[in-house]
Amino acid sequence: MRLLIVGTLKGQLTTATKIAMENGATVTHAEDLDQAMRVLRGGKGADLLLVDVALDIRDLVMRLEAEHIHAPIVACGITNDARAAVAAIHAGAKEYIPLPPDPELIAAVLAAVANDSRELVYRDEAMAKVIKLAQQIAGSDASVMITGESGTGKEVLARYVHTRSARAKRPFISINCAAIPEHLLESELFGHEKGAFTGAIARRIGKFEEATGGTLLLDEISEMDVRLQSKLLRAIQERVIDRVGGTKPVPVDIRIIATSNRNLVDAVREGTFREDLLFRLNVVNLKIPPLRERPLDILELAQHFVKKYAEANGVPVRPISAEARRVLSSNRWQGNVRELENTMHRAVLMAQGDEIGPDAILTPDGDRLDLAKTVPAVAHATMAAEQVTRALVGRTVADVERDLILETLKHCLGNRTHAANILGISIRTLRNKLNEYSDGGIPIPPAGTPGEYPRMPMVGA
């Protein structure tokens, strides 16, 4: 994680620097905004700017926007002045930190930026195969193409590969080829010299040079113009780039990871993507299945997001009810993990009672997800059945039985008696199974209180 500290603050930021470095950050200093801009243009880059609140933060925000430099700003000051903090936030800062700095607060801010809430969470075998391949090739310098529908987590996987490579301690630089206008993308990638075009007020180092020694992620590369693809091909082949307006080539040392939500073979046939570039990028293809084809990941991710957003909003972490689980499992998730995350964020905020029930699983406009008119109920049921069947194929009976017993026990909060009743087995059989799993090193939910659930009615009562 790269931290740029802007300002002096009578030595107070020296303490912040020490704390940041202890938390694994690479720290660069700039005394004022002009020097900060020179640092950012010069290729060192920054994942976070820690800026003296006495400086003109609004001016800094405008300068960054004018030169298409993207980095969050955290303001800091030697007094806990509420007015100064509010002004800094209004000017464009993401947060305000009073100085002298609290070590835990600085560490939390750095962790938030470094992790960026992009944890790799999976359980389904379909995703496990992709992760295994990613682990096998992470240590090489081979170019990687990551494909999959929008929202499946392509950038998350790209960072996963980077952090397990020999380049892990060097920069991970990402650029979205679809989000930057065509006439600016070349400059963003390769940089430019002063006066190369209108608005080029100073030399600017591009993403290729900024990523030297590390990894460059070309997100949604299928959206790149064919003309620029030829220049990219040369950069990958010869490991040199030409800045816009430059007169001599600049050597670079990077690993390329590219992503696409389109079929690039079809794009080659249509003439919108160069075949030779595809061959260069597609040394290894990591194809992420859509969430609807990873049924076990749906509930695993849902629980992860519940915990995440409950903590973020200061509310209790509620379990997901059985009915809500059925709703989640039967949805198509056209937006994949991104859609599921938003849904669970809403659920955390809307849930009432001790559980997250189906009434809290809502669409963005407030309708219950299982009652939404976008997909007929029959289609929901058919799809749910297909997902269950797909999850069982290829697994042993013993594995399926184990998962069923443990999931039922989790649902019952560890209550052995209640779980045995639901499973239709004796409590003795259940305990024997749990002892067997425990001996095999499998974690077992702790025993719950017998009175937590109502007793099952006796037959004939």
Give a written overview of the molecule.
The structure is a single chain. The chain is α/β, with parallel strands linked by helices. It is built from 19 helices and twelve strands. The strands form three sheets. A five-stranded parallel beta sheet has the order 2-1-3-4-5, sandwiched between helices. The longest helix has 19 residues, at 295-313. It is globular and about 80 Å long. The model is unreliable at 449-461 (pLDDT under 50).
* Coarse shape: globular
Largest sheet: 5 strands, parallel
Q: How many strands in all?
A: 12
Q: Quote the distance from N terminus to C terminus.
A: 65 Å
Supply Rg.
26 Å
Q: Tally the helices.
A: 19
Q: Can you give the mean pLDDT?
A: 84
Strand order within the widest beta sheet: 2-1-3-4-5
> What structural class results from the helix and strand content?
alpha/beta
Assembly state (oligomeric): single chain
Helix content: 40-55%
Strand fraction: 5-15%
Identify low-pLDDT runs.
Answer: 449-461
List keywords for this structure.
461 residues; five-stranded parallel beta sheet; 46% helix; ATP-binding; CheY-like_superfamily; two-component regulatory system
